[in-house]
Write a structure and sequence with these properties.
This protein is mainly α. Helices cover 76% and strands 0% of the residues. The chain has helices at residues 2-14, 25-47, 53-80, 85-91, 96-102. It is elongated, with a radius of gyration of 24 Å.
């Protein structure tokens, strides 16, 4: 299942469509392929006694979105806070005590 999920991610990454393109045959075929694979996965999971695959899938999507947004936020704040105002205050004066406070 993990290899299938990875192939689905690659497929969706390589087949992204704009709003206008979503009505094209290629976009519909791509969507149908993904839906059929998802249905097959859920059916296979149910056959093997894993009855809550859809709930696990939704939780995984939610945590993935959370992790992506957190990473994006950390990237933005990291660029802004390389040297902050408190660092400049600690370094003000230029004496060894201030440098030690900074370090």
């Amino acid at each position: 299942m993990s290899e299938i999920n990875e192939s689905k991610r690659i497929h969706s990454r390589n087949h992204q469509y704009s709003y206008e393109q979503r009505t094209s045959n290629e976009a519909r075929n791509s969507s149908d392929i993904q839906n059929d694979i998802r249905d097959w996965q859920f059916q296979t999971a149910k056959e093997n006694g894993f009855l809550n695959a859809d709930k696990v899938n939704m939780e995984t999507k939610g945590w993935k979105m959370f992790a992506d947004s957190l990473a994006k936020k950390m990237d933005r704040s990291g660029a802004n806070n390389s040297i902050g105002i408190t660092d400049w205050i600690a370094l003000s004066g230029g004496n060894p005590t201030n440098v030690a406070l900074f370090l």
